[in-house]
Design a protein that fits this description.
alpha+beta; 5-stranded mixed β-sheet; globular; binds FE2/S2 (inorganic) cluster
């Protein structure tokens, strides 16, 4: 079964088993390894990406459901050789604490900045993204620093 999808603006045709996880297609078939696996059970948010404008947990999406869709991963946020303001803020404020949760945190935060009405605050916006080690203070500070340019917090 051939499946067409767009990832970070590039068009692909892939022929994986139809129930192969989008997460694995991204990482193994298409070499977009920025999206990470944490729990693999839809609980931690590490694998978060944006598909047709909606946040998805790529460990829970069979590739057959991504046919014809546009997927944005952490690698798709930077533009014209410049980091997205969230990526820059995570660097400057120390929010990039580990390589597993950070991509999903930034993707969820990017969605929040574009859809500020869908969450009460940063905490609610990132409620689906777990940090299992260091804590959320610097992560929230990073999102707040980036969001100040949007005047939403
Ligand atoms: S790896 Fe997908 S939610 Fe944890
Ligand atoms: S799990 Fe990534 S910083 Fe805690």
């Amino acid at each position: 079964m051939q499946i067409s999808l767009t990832v970070n603006g590039k068009n692909y045709q892939v022929t994986p088993p139809p129930m192969k996880r989008l997460l694995d297609v991204l990482r193994e078939d298409l070499a977009w390894t920025g999206t990470k696996e944490g729990c693999g059970e839809g609980e931690c948010g590490a694998c978060t990406a944006i598909m047709d404008g909606v946040l998805v947990l790529t460990c829970m999406v069979p590739i057959c459901q991504a046919a014809g869709k546009h997927v944005t991963t952490i690698e798709g946020l930077a533009a014209d050789g410049k980091l997205h303001r969230l990526q820059q803020a995570f660097l400057e404020k120390g929010g990039a604490q580990c390589g597993i949760c950070t991509p999903g945190m930034i993707i969820a935060a990017a969605y929040y900045l574009e859809h500020p009405d869908e969450a009460e605050d940063i905490g609610e916006a990132l409620a689906g993204n777990q940090c299992r080690c260091t804590g959320y203070t610097r992560i929230f500070e990073s999102v707040k620093a980036a969001s100040s340019l949007y005047s939403i917090v």
